[in-house]
Amino acid sequence: MKRWRQLAELFRVFFKIGLFTFGGGYAMISLIGHEVGERRGWIDGDELAEVFAIAESTPGPIAINAATYVGYRRSGVAGGVWATLGVVMPSFVIIYAISLFFERFMALSAVANAFRGIQVAVAFLILRAGLRMAGKLPRRWFEMGLCAAAAGAVLGINAFGWRFSTVWLILGGGAAGLLHRRARQLGKGAGQ
Amino acid sequence: MKLLGLFAVFFKIGLFTFGGGYAMLPLIQQEALSRGWLDAESLYRFIGVCESTPGPIAVNMATFVGSTRAGLAGAACATLGVVLPAMIVMLLIAAVLKGFRQNPWVRASMSGIRPVVAGMILAVGLWTATRCLLPGLEDGGVPLSPDVRQIAIAAALGGATLLWRKVLKRDFSPILLILFSAACGVAVYGL
Question: What is the pTM of this model?
């Protein structure tokens, strides 16, 4: 009985988090901190900071990573599953409902006009996200070079129809990071 | 088959998305456009919708693409696909790999993945901006035909963001930006 209540509470808390965050995972960080950290004391601040840092270096949406981790810490694998379901459910229901009416909605000329404006905002938001992420990179040849090469490759795919999957870019980046570390180790070894 | 395909593609997208919803845009753009699941127009429209509805962008995109392709079951398969990798990896880390982030090899590969993701997002942003402001470029169209109305909207957005930052010392939140640009669109194209 107690266990069911715990799982239901996890679902409820993360449902609320999923329902009230706009604009992606980063916006969610402060709300998650408030709900599971300060308000309920499920996880302390240090561990939470660590969770978000881990979420950055694991695949998948940050919100999902955080929900799974917090749920697991509280009630094991079932907790992880319920918390994740909770955070996904609001998006799923809302977007599904929207998708049913989207085409008819777009046929209204005012809506179509609004979306022509929104397209500009979307470009702006993507650029801003990219610039922020690039701004946090160390200013070194290695990082700047990789960043420029990846940007060039994606532009090539879009503009010239180059045919390869962007997954290779991610894998290539990971491999470059490993080689870079190895090369530095060897460099240090030779210097001593 | 359709359902399995949706699940597989979104599982792959979920597996190779590092660092938040924007990181998935280059992947989803490539997968959805090359398979003809969406045209570029509806993709960018829909990113706007995802920005102004709650929840992680990745989940919103998966639900939408899945639903337009194969109804409720499609939405469920695509969403499950995009969520599962994150959940499995996170459960593994929470249960057994406590030192994951301190591991020097993990840190080394992330030091290469981070700049790549930043570059990919920048390129998608640049490409999207070019598509709106200079349509025709994507077809190799010369002469370019700058879209004056889109450029006017972009200028209004830029001005408003600057003003917001100077006066209120805050960033325009994505949802405000979307609402403002929608109003600009109605005003510029409708009147």
Answer: 0.78
